[in-house]
Amino acid sequence: MIGRLTAARAEPGPLLPLEVEGLVVEAGGRRLLDGLAFTLRPERCTVILGPNGAGKSLLLRVLHGLVPPDRGTLRWAEPDPDRRRLAQAFVFQKPVLLRRSVRGDLAVALAARGVPRRERRARIAEALALVGLEGFERRAARSLSGGEQQRLARAWALRPQLLFLDEPTASLDPAATRMVEAIVRDLAARGVTIVASTHDLGQARRLAQDILFLHAGRLLDRGPAEAFFERPASPEARAFLAGELPA
Amino acid sequence: MGEIGEAAATALRLLWSADPELFAIVALSLEVSLTATALAAAIGLPLGALLALARFPGRGALVLLVDAGMGLPPVVVGLLVYLLLSRAGPLGEFGLLFTPTAMVIAQTILVTPIVAALARRAVADLLEDYHEHLTSLGLRPLAAVPVLLFDARYRLATACLAGFGRAAAEVGAILIVGGNIREHTRTMTTAIALETSKGALEQALALGFVLILVVLAVNLAAAGLSTMARRIEG
């Protein structure tokens, strides 16, 4: 049914780089994102770091097109918004799983992206195998454990150019966290650009190539991860790294 | 108390002997209520989905109207349908008053708001849960509708069962538009009212038992659906 309603869509061109300028989001008279400017480069793992309430999740949602900005520009290499959407995937902090089987859940995602019905079964089996969930096709998607839900099976099945991860391991135990991080590194090694938010310094050190440090909606530090961790530019970033700001 | 016990024993004998009049009444009751529920589902499910998904002027008022319709008084509905179908009414020429069709019309009016309101809530809850995910996938609004309806399937089925329960137990409206005519428009509820007023408690109790069985079966089906939903949906 979904397949019939979804026309096959043209393949998107390269999405990135993305140039962000003067990005502002306001709500209730408060500036939640305040004049952000940065560039997202392709095939990099960028971590948005900052304390709770800094605006990390909101920034991911704005970049993915779920929340419209009040001001500012986002200049993508791919001009067509529909094609851009086809080349992205988003993993929410609390995964949204459909009330159907694992296969059914993934099939909806693939159908939405215009993947022909005949290809879906193979794509699903391949994605589940890559994240260690072989044989889970018939299981209820919502019956998967937190760690199983976050293994990014959808991300593998959709094969995006750009993957947004919103605090992907926030509620996971250390073993499940390690597994998810390994899967993220695997995706990155295959050329998927990763943009992940976290307040976990250890995770940022393990995953990040580039860092965007947000504090109270402002971008206070950005650049290669190594430089950020060695010589943070702002007092807030230094305090955060020293554990003097609440994570 | 002794009289009730005797009446209950007689009622069981009537049921056991498969009394033809009793079974005709049960069959007509089920036919009318099932037809009304099917029609209410055909109208109420799409209406509920539309109210949950679409944004248009007057939507808020329509939602309020449908929600309020869940508490429609059956006798008032019966009276309105009576006026519509009576010889002097706008639909009088069709000669539907005091027929099972008139009873179906009245029950459909009673049940449709129940199905529509429960369906709207089911789809709206799901949409709240799924909205960001479906948007993220780039699923177009039209393509999201079957996804939402499929995933709300158990709650939609429960909405229909709730509607059927209301129809099967209803007496005011069908008494007015059906007339409780023997072997023509007499149902379980109207027969119970009549037999009780005549003092024929055995017949009334026998029908009461069957009605309770039907209501129990509906509740069991709803509980079964809920259990199945938990198992399948996780």
Report on this model:
- The complex is a heterodimer of chains A (247) and B (234).
- Chain A has one domain (11-97, 146-241): P-loop containing nucleotide triphosphate hydrolases (Rossmann fold, 3-Layer(aba) Sandwich), CATH 3.40.50.300.
- Chain A is built from eleven helices and nine strands.
- Chain A has helices at 2-5, 56-64, 81-86, 102-112, 117-130, 146-149, 153-158, 174-189, 201-207, 225-230, 235-241; strands at residues 18-27, 30-40, 45-49, 71-76, 88-91, 162-166, 193-198, 210-215, 218-224.
- In chain A, a hairpin with a 2-residue loop joins strand 1 (18-27) and strand 2.
- Chain A is globular, with a radius of gyration of 18 Å.
- Mean pLDDT of chain A is 90; it is low at 1-8.
- In chain B, 81% of the residues lie in helices and 0% in strands.
- Chain B has helices spanning 2-16, 20-53, 59-69, 74-85, 100-137, 141-151, 153-169, 172-178, 188-198, 201-233.
- The model of chain B has no long low-confidence stretch (mean pLDDT 91).
